[in-house]
């Protein structure tokens, strides 16, 4: 097989991303001490922490505003007591992903592409996560177990694209990532490798020359979809990471989730689109939150979301307006609402 020419691109920062990943903040009281907030005013939900522990990289905390309970980054990670209120229409698996899980580590929901849960863990626990109840224990193949998963792909020549997700696929080592990509490269009918990752936003130190080399040398067309919800998330290190990816052979897109009290506002989303584009990222999707147990307080009414996107269309060129989408189980693709 042929590989693309090697490019060496400077890393974002010399600090080792693995050390940061091994030192994630998991104590709610420590987080509030850093932000100079009084835990007695908004105590965390102990039941929510038991089900879905707090997990935040320290570089992401650096982008939060001290003393502000309404900080849009804090609201995305704080295990509030609102998570204990679950309407009857919310469930642990609203997308019914268990129906599309024919072998360990693989979801096959749409034609011509499959999703691999390349990692069972994330660098951050976003409280609105649609996979907060996902059975990662049964979907974390060892190298030996990956054989069945790869064989499934080999036997279906309609599959042209593999999506690495999780968890977060950039949370695994370069060695493991390279091994998986090389295994996929051996399947002739695959053309596109797509990577869905929040790590370039919350742990930009992960974007190293070694990682970029892996992408530049693969025979695949590589697409990376990062996950950024608010322009405040884009620190100087994140800007450098995004520009590093953009200068490589990778096509760089962003997907967001529209979240009540965080970014359900035309001005905020307009600023996000401009900031992303100025650093080489095209807005792609903005999702309505899935009806996942524990996340009802993030919900935005469909009519309001459509109104916001319509307002963006009036103020931005088309290429800066993300498509508003909703995922419905059993549908042949995501449902575009506007």
Concise overview:
This protein has 338 residues and is an alpha/beta fold. The chain contains twelve helices and nine strands.
Provide a descriptive summary of the structure in words.
It is a single chain. 30% of the residues lie in helices and 14% in strands. By secondary structure, it is of the alpha/beta class. The chain has a single domain (17-86, 102-336), classed as TIM Barrel, CATH 3.20.20. It is globular.
Instruction: Give the tally of β-strands.
Output: 9
CATH superfamily: Aldolase class I
> What is the helical fraction, as a range of percent?
25-40%
Query: Number of helical runs?
Result: 12
What oligomeric assembly is this protein in?
single chain
The structural domain count equals 1
Taking all residues together, what is the mean pLDDT? 93
Strand count, sense and closure of the main sheet? 9 strands, mixed
In the predicted model, the low-confidence regions spanning at least 5 consecutive residues are 1-14
Topology:
Layout: H1 17-21, H2 28-34, H3 46-51, H4 58-62, H5 72-77, E1 106-110, E2 113-117, H6 146-154, E3 161-165, H7 174-185, E4 192-197, H8 199-202, H9 209-217, E5 221-227, H10 236-246, E6 251-257, H11 266-277, E7 282-287, H12 302-315, E8 323-326, E9 335-336
Parallel strand pairs: 2-3, 3-4, 4-5, 5-6, 6-7, 7-8
Antiparallel strand pairs: 1-2, 8-9
Can you give keywords for this protein?
338 residues, alpha/beta, TIM Barrel, nine-stranded mixed sheet, 12 helices, 9 strands, disordered N terminus
């Amino acid at each position: 097989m042929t590989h693309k020419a090697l490019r060496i691109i400077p890393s974002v920062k010399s600090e080792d991303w693995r050390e940061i990943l091994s030192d994630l903040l998991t104590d709610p009281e420590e987080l509030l001490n850093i932000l100079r907030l009084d835990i007695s005013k908004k105590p965390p939900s102990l039941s929510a922490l038991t089900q879905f522990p707090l997990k935040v990289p320290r570089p992401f905390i650096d982008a939060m505003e001290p003393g502000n309970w309404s900080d849009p980054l804090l609201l995305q990670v704080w295990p509030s007591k609102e998570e204990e209120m679950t309407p009857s229409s919310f469930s642990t698996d609203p997308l019914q992903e268990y129906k599309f899980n024919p072998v360990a580590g693989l979801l096959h929901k749409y034609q011509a592409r499959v999703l691999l849960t390349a990692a069972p863990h994330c660098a951050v626990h976003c409280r609105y996560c649609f996979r907060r109840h996902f059975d990662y224990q049964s979907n974390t193949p060892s190298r030996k177990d990956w054989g069945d998963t790869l064989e499934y792909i080999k036997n279906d020549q309609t599959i042209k694209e593999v999506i690495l997700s999780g968890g977060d696929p950039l949370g695994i080592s370069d060695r493991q990532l390279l091994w998986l990509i090389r295994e996929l490269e051996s399947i002739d009918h695959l053309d596109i490798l797509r990577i869905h990752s929040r790590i370039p936003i919350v742990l930009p130190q992960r974007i190293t020359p070694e990682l970029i080399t892996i992408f530049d040398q693969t025979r695949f067309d590589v697409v990376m979809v990062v996950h950024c919800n608010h322009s405040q998330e884009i620190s100087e290190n994140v800007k450098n990471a995004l520009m590093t990816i953009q200068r490589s052979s990778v096509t760089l897109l962003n997907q967001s989730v529209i979240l009540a009290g965080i970014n359900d506002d035309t001005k905020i989303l307009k600023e996000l689109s401009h900031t992303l584009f100025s650093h080489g990222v095209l807005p792609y999707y903005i999702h309505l939150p899935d009806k996942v147990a524990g996340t009802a307080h993030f919900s935005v009414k469909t009519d309001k979301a459509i109104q916001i996107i319509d307002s963006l269309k009036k103020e931005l060129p088309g290429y800066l307006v993300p498509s508003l989408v909703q995922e419905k189980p059993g549908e042949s693709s995501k449902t575009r609402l506007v």
